[in-house]
From TrEMBL:
InterPro entries with a match to the protein in the record: Rhodanese-like_dom, Rhodanese-like_dom_sf, Thiosulphate_STrfase_CS, TST/MPST-like
Gene Ontology molecular-function annotations: thiosulfate-cyanide sulfurtransferase activity
SUPFAM superfamilies linked: Rhodanese/Cell cycle control phosphatase (SSF52821)
Domain Rhodanese span(s) in chain numbering: 51-148, 204-290
Species assigned in the record: Thalassobaculum litoreum DSM 18839
PANTHER family reported for this sequence: SULFURTRANSFERASE, THIOSULFATE SULFERTANSFERASE
Keyword Acetylation: no
Name this polypeptide is given: Thiosulfate/3-mercaptopyruvate sulfurtransferase
CDD domains registered for this protein in UniProt: TST_Repeat_1, TST_Repeat_2
Keywords assigned by UniProt, alphabetized: Pyruvate, Repeat, Transferase
A Pfam family of this chain: Rhodanese
Amino acid sequence: MAGSSTYALRDTLVSTDWLAGALDRGEVRVFDCTCFLVPDPKTTLRAESGRPAYEEAHIPGAGFLDIMGDFSDSAGRFRFTMPAPERLAEVFGAHGIGDDTAVVLYAADNPSWATRFWWMLRVAGFDNAAVLDGGLKKWRAEGRPVERGAVSLPPATLTPHPRPELVVGRDGVLAAVGDPGVCIVNALSEAQHKGEGAHYGRPGRIAGSTNVPSATLLDPETNAFRPAAEIEAALRAAGAMEAARVVPYCGGGIAASVTTYWLTRLGKENVALYDASLSEWVSDEALPMEVG
């Protein structure tokens, strides 16, 4: 079965050319992670599962990982709350990801869904995963084949090795506010960072945080990431590369996974994503925010 025996990925970012060859050789299992955030006047953004789009067209052999299903904590107060690492390992295994699997993750358009799953795998203790640069959009633009319908992969066993240091909660973020050794990075748009337009209940940003919008790390023409040197320069300008610790955040832990992914890929250690992000932060008026 493709990708079911150990194949060590050499990079956490792979090209469409590389993936096409790896699929032909049966070296990896590939997963569509698509979700859509649709503008909604009542809730700012409404989440819709990407499963219908996946069943309409996906990379051949790809399974589907639904962030609106088992990969969010149904008991959590906030949308997309990550399940416990042990639960993550269980559901990843049920979807065909085991200790010996090589995994490639992609989304139809926004790569933050793929980087979110990459991060969750790391939290569960699994490292042999990569993100497809450009995702399905680039794959299809190059005229590569797609399939319809659903793919059912045989279950596997993923042994959890939890990494709690990769996650930070509200109290940890509050303690980091004003700490010169910690760089808190907002992955939302510049307008949202300033407190303009749509927000999550209170406008603005966590006090003292800097801004590297995740959307600016992409080439809008190809949907691929910008060159690593450009991304590193943006993160360095925000103070993230020199900081002793970095805390990326956004609205609900999705866009910030792009920041987390790139910091890790660039060799930065001591990076902890604020999972509940502004969805939680804005709900407590005592937690400091800034605008402007």
